[in-house]
Amino acid sequence: MFRVAKVLTAAEGADTTALIDGLSLTAGKSQYVLRSRLEPTLPEAAAGGDYIWQLQFAGEPEYRAWLDDAGREAASILNDAALVRHVDAVSYEEGRAGSKRPLDRGVYRLLLINVNKAPNAAAVAQFEHETYEMGSYIPGIVRWRISRVQEASGARPWTHIWEQEYQDLDGLLKSYMLHPHHWGWINRWYDPECVEHMIDNHLCHSFCNFQQSVIEPENGS
Amino acid sequence: MSETGRETIYYLDHLVAQPGRAQALLQFYMSDYAPQARTRGMALVHRWVTPPLWLKEQSNELFIIWSVEGAQAWWTATRLRRADPSFLGFWEDAKPMIVSRRRLFLSDVNDVDALCDV
Question: CATH code at B63?
Fold first, then answer.
């Protein structure tokens, strides 16, 4: 599957109903879009934008076809300064995904990462492997996926998207944040004081509620 | 074993000094880095050196250990460190005195289960 994720910050005083309806329409009327989900971010997602918009396509050709069709209308809406102040966006082929159990609803979180100081490809592969492993070690993460970004725009040239689904917000704010795999292990790639540091300090981190999982793991659970 | 939720987390700076420079490196670390670290809530626990004499023509290795109480305190210190570019300035300035270094995060083995139970 090919996916698009956009974190939108609405313009001050924007007609958000027009924004949501307009974007949803560009997905709903297109034969190329398999799924579209546009959710408001949760209040705890400070600096995480106002909405997360996700689109799913059968493959990259369908995504390109949408871009040339209803995607043009979406771009027009997103470029309307009266509606949208900022967008961080990525398109990507689904990367490695895992799951502990099915999850019908909960909290979806994404992190856009810019790996801009990697010493070599092996370091990037190690980082991706360890990021995937977080899902196995951290109890609060129920479903997860790490993917390489194909196209990016916004505050940084994002290289990766790290997605997780949790049963509730505690899974993210407590289990994920406080687990030693996070602060005692994977952190070294992000920490400028560690010699392994290779990730831009500016991250795009946002989360929202969801009613249907967007992560289809390899093990199918 | 520490109090649940406030398990002691240690930072280990393992520094391999340039030959004959370990004393100067430690002095610079203590005068330039340590005061900033303390204001971020980090407590200095140990300053170890091997071998326990100051080598003139070979490298000493320094093991400088800090601690905070609990993962929340670790995040507080980390956010403050990352917001302050002077921390990076220290490492840049200290480079000529260092052959290699590594920062590790550790805990007492008895605290592992409690730390992972989140």
Answer: 3.30.70.100
